[in-house]
Design the sequence.
């Protein structure tokens, strides 16, 4: 709803101009552009991975014990794991799991965090106090620790890990957006909207949100990477995906046992995580410069 | 200043109460039947009933909360399901090793991250800047536990220059008196002047410290850079430039001081991350700290131990935040 309203508020001609400007800026910032291309290809890989995987059955846990722990070769590009499954196919499919999981977590976090932050900032007073004290409670845990505890209590599974991440993540967005709203709501255009009797929710979503969304977009882009990393960490502790899911963090955990004589087992899933997270962080970093009028350069 | 301190302390206590409330909800509300969980899967209904009474679960929820808080105030975090030892005792034994790892790696990371951010901001858009940006973003993107495995592979397996894990070599543990004064290996060996142990300890420290500190370096370098750049574009810097002051003077004496606030904040956050990263790394390097205990507790789903660690971690983080706020309040521009 919010993104739609932002987009439809601008006349079509200007919309195109703004879009063209952003594409131009993106292309100029080579590192960010590369990161975007990598992310887009990862999305494509995530969608078509079961089709292009050379051993699709290995993704879902079919075992092939006579080929266990083979070195990377022409048949098995990344080698095989302890059950003789093709690591290349599994790492490819892992893209889908990680991207989907972090997308769900970030979107849900935004859906909870952003309206609460808008409300806290806009209404101030009692509502603000209540919301922000709850946020403070959540933020007084070191990152990951709360997610770890919640995931442990919900029981180890991928769904529960994602749920735990959502519970631990939304307060960051609330705090971020509240800070923005507080500084924007005193501006003239908000007062003007108020004076002509625009309903509060419309002021919040049509006038305030579009003006404070850029830091949230930057943060969300970085969090898409950060959550992949955290999810892998939870899997590494045994709290995320369970065997035989082809999840990157889980592959790394299992690989520890065979680490000394099968280096490829740990190396490839790790590189996959690293490249994905790096791309999201580079994109976020680039977006920060492009979306901030102070640092925007032509 | 005093009223600020009192207010900040009260706020800290309030936050602590929030932490306790959240953990209480986790312990008593999330599991459908905590008593059944306590006695285990094969218990008879009578045993579950007895456990319910023993744990006070038959009482109203606010009485339960009161008991829970009273126990925590007494420093009683309950008993581990695995070892049946008091959790607080086990954590106390392991805490120095973790604290040492976090502190040493964070200090080293600061000593690298701050200058990196400074150079980066000073020479904006030069190749040094691009390199340091790429390096710092890389450092926050790398999975800590994977880095640990790779470093182990390179430096232990292939190059054979560094040990794979532990705090000291087996040779030293068996044949030398290990000094125990403060519980911190680094300080103890330094105080007693035992340089053989110190050298051995540092050799074991390098790899875990790199893994724990990598994130901190990246975070601190990035924040320092952006804070400095923002300050360098402010009017008073332009004024200083127009007076013809040297760039060096402007950077070190005008800009750096004012970037202390955001940098201190980020250091706190980075320490929080460092604490979590030790949890992941310690079990790989067999470091005898809390991290290994956490990994075990999580694997066996030892709920009381997990809660104990969560509360301890949150307390450490609250204290860290308190210190940050006090440091920032030393800035005369901050209204108390």
Sequence:
């Amino acid at each position: 709803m919010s993104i739609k309203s932002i987009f439809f508020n601008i006349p079509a001609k200007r919309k195109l101009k703004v879009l063209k400007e952003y594409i131009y800026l993106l292309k100029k910032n080579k590192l960010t552009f590369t990161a975007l291309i990598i992310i887009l290809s990862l999305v494509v890989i995530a969608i078509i991975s079961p089709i292009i995987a050379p051993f699709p059955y290995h993704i879902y846990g079919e075992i092939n014990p006579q080929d266990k722990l083979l070195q990377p070769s022409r048949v098995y590009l990344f080698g095989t794991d302890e059950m003789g499954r093709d690591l290349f196919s599994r790492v490819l499919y892992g893209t889908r799991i990680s991207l989907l999981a972090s997308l769900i977590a970030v979107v849900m976090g935004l859906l909870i965090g952003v309206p609460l932050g808008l409300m806290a900032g806009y209404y101030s007073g009692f509502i603000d106090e209540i919301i922000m004290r709850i946020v403070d409670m959540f933020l007084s845990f070191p990152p990951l620790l709360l997610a770890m505890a919640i995931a442990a209590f919900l029981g180890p599974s991928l769904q529960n890990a994602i749920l735990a991440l959502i519970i631990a993540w939304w307060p960051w967005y609330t705090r971020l957006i509240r800070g923005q709203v507080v500084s924007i709501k005193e501006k003239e255009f908000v007062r003007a909207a108020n004076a002509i009797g625009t309903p509060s929710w419309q002021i919040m979503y049509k006038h305030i949100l579009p003006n404070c969304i850029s830091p949230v977009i930057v943060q969300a882009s970085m969090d898409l990477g950060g959550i992949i990393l955290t999810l892998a960490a939870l899997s590494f502790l045994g709290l995320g995906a369970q065997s035989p899911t082809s999840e990157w963090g889980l592959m790394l955990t299992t690989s520890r046992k065979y680490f000394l004589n099968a280096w490829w087992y740990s190396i490839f899933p790790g590189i996959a995580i690293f490249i994905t997270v790096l791309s999201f962080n580079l994109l976020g970093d680039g977006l920060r410069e492009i979306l901030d009028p102070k640092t925007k350069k032509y | 200043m005093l009223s600020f301190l009192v207010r900040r302390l009260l706020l800290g206590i309030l936050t602590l109460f929030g932490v306790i409330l959240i953990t209480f909800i986790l312990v008593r509300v999330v599991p459908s039947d905590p008593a059944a969980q306590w006695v285990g899967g094969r218990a008879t209904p009578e045993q579950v009933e007895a456990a319910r009474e023993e744990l006070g679960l038959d009482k109203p929820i606010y009485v339960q909360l009161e008991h829970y808080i009273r126990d925590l105030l007494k420093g009683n975090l309950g008993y581990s399901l695995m070892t049946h030892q008091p959790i607080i005792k086990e954590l106390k034994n392991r805490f120095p090793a973790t604290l040492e790892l976090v502190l040493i790696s964070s200090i080293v990371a600061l000593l690298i991250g701050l200058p990196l951010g400074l150079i980066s901001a000073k020479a904006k858009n030069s190749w040094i800047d691009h390199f340091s940006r790429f390096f710092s973003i890389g450092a926050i993107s790398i999975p800590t536990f994977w880095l640990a495995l790779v470093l182990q592979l390179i430096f232990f397996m292939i190059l054979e220059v560094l040990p794979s894990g532990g705090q000291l070599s087996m040779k030293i543990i068996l044949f030398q008196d290990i000094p125990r004064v403060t519980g911190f290996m680094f300080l103890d060996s330094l105080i007693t002047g035992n340089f053989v142990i110190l050298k051995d300890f540092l050799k074991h420290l390098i790899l875990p410290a790199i893994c724990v500190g990598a994130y901190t370096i990246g975070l601190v370098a990035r924040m320092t850079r952006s804070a400095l750049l923002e300050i360098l574009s402010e009017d008073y810097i332009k004024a200083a430039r127009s007076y013809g002051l040297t760039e060096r003077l402007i950077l070190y004496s005008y800009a750096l001081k004012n970037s202390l606030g955001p940098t201190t904040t980020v250091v706190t956050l980075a320490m929080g991350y460092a604490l979590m990263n030790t949890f992941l790394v310690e079990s790989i390097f067999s470091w005898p700290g809390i991290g290994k205990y956490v990994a075990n507790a999580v694997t066996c789903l030892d709920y009381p131990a997990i809660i104990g660690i969560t509360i301890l971690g949150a307390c450490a983080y609250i204290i860290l935040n308190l210190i940050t706020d006090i440091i920032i309040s030393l800035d005369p521009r901050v209204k108390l």
User: Anything to note?
Assistant: Chain A is about 75% helix and 0% strand. Chain A has one domain: 3-291. Chain A touches chain B through 48 residues (CB under 8 Å). Residues 1 and 55 of chain A are 41 Å apart (CA to CA).
